[in-house]
Amino acid sequence: MPSMNSKRYRHNNIMDIDRRSLIVNLYDINALKFGSFQLKSGELSKYYLDIRVIVSYPKILKQVCTLVSTTILKDDADSKNQVRLCGVPYTALPIATIVSIDTNLPMLIRRKEQKTYGTKKLIDGEYSCGDDVIVIEDVITSGASILETVTDLEKSNLNVSNVIVLVDRQQGGMQRLSERGLKIKSLFNITEIVTILKEAGKISDEVYQSVLDYVISNQIQPVKECEKPLRTKLEFKERARLLETSKIAQKIFNVSLEKKSNLCVAVDVDTADKLLDIAEKVAPHICILKTHIDAINGVTDATINTLQHLAKKYNFLIMEDRKMADIGNTVKLQYKKLVQWADLVTVHSVSGGMMLKGIHEVIKENADLLDSRGVFIVAELSCNGNLISEQYIKETVKIAEEYKDIVAGLVCQSYDVISSPSLLQLTPGVNIKNSNDNLGQQYQSPSDIILTKGADIAVVGRGIYQDSNPAEAAKVYKESLWNTYLERVSNS
Q1: How does pLDDT run across 443-458, given as a tens digit for each residue?
Q2: Which listed site, 1, 128, 224, 446, has its alpha carbon 20 to 30 Å from 11?
Q3: Does the annotation count 321 as an active-site position?
Q4: Annotated binding site
């Protein structure tokens, strides 16, 4: 990626475009038409924007792309993250391509249909988790096509930083995307366009007025209730009372409410002494402690006993992040070694529901633990290049609902994976101080995790256990995450 100075140099050397002349040129090549046209939605419009025709007029195409490039380089001059471009298919693809060459910013391609072979990717191109993406679109009415692209990019663990559209039809799409939390800018709006064309003698006063009247009479009603699932709107106390919520999920809700904490700390250290030291320091501030016991040296029965004592004393749950993913019988044998001390365990759904059946059988064999054990299923991974597909995610959700008596929730990165209020979303990757590490890990803020991605429980690792004062760091994260959760439910 070019340096900021390089980007400023290119910005200063991109030619200025006469906006009025460009609008007239677009009219002259029939990219702007007036009359009566049926739109994709079925409604009749007084005008039609056929921007795709510019691919046959290289000079005009270049002018349009230069406007977009100038806007991007100006707005992104101070960006510290890697930035990529993505055009909404299909009209914006050639525009994004030329802008990529103009700005020297890498480009991604979002497929309309996911590949059913090879890598089965929905997003083509090279990227890392957490990279910023600028989405480019030709025209915005309701914003639906842009939201489809944004959703697919976010599911691939990319961050949509800005949206640029050529023309705003001024029917509510810009407001809808802004309410979604997106930064969006249009190069032109339809009022500006018809004003320029009227002054240039290209359209009559009657046509001018008919377009303005049409815009006023055809506002898109904002979609409020369907933007985010009910799960993100309800308070934990309401969700805990749901009949279909598992006992273990209820326990997590109740612990969170009692401690006013939706913080899960991942203690990924290498020795048992370090594990217990960090656990005791963060214990007052967490609802879940996440461990990788099989990766820690020196763990004994005494280690586990101390961990359980801390969990009881400070009221938190222990989750062994084992990510089991074998046939039912093998998982059953593995889980027998965990059930006595781990309240929760993580699993993959790759082997299907029989794996959960095996876990369920082990829990039933330990009657005293029947209401206090459960699993989180991994539905999405945050790493680039993973092989999880949309179909895999859907099937994982089905399995979770089938075994909802023991499934506390899903580990995922997107707010729309879980719709049921009875399931919890657990999302890793929070770090207030850093945005990434030297191994490709991309971090997010509490606002990103709770408000944008829809997490109920957020996982923090190195941001706490590598801090010089883990106890104070845990307290800061706890308060920030809980306040962000309160903001989410209060805005609903």
Answers
A1: 577 888 898 889 999 9
A2: 128
A3: yes
A4: 268, 290, 382, 441, 461-462
Digit-coded pLDDT (tens) for 283-341: 999 999 999 999 999 999 999 999 999 999 999 999 999 999 999 999 999 999 999 99
Computed from CA positions of residues 100, 104, 110, 115, in that sequence, does the dihedral angle turn out positive or negative?
positive
Instruction: Output the pTM of the full model.
Output: 0.61
**Catalytic residue list contains 152:** no
- Helix-helix angle 390-402:353-365, to 10 degrees: 30
- The single residue of 138, 168, 321, 448 carrying the catalytic annotation is 321
- Assess whether pLDDT exceeds 70 at residue 218: yes
Domain boundaries, the chain: 19-218, 230-491
What fold is seen in the domain 230-491? TIM Barrel (3.20.20)
- Is 138 assigned a catalytic role? no
Instruction: State the Cα–Cα distance between residues 113 and 122, nearest whole angstrom.
Output: 7
pLDDT on residue 222: 55
| Helix segments in 366-428, DSSP class H | 390-402
Active-site pick, 62, 202, 260, 323: 323
Structure confidence at residue 267 (pLDDT)? 96
Residues in the annotated binding site for substrate: 268, 290, 382, 441, 461-462
Q: Identify the pLDDT of residue 365.
A: 93
- Catalytic entry in 50, 75, 326, 371: 326
CATH classification number, 19-218, choose in 3.40.50.2020, 3.10.450.50, 3.30.870.10, 3.30.1490.20: 3.40.50.2020
Longest Cα–Cα distance of the chain, Å, equals: 87
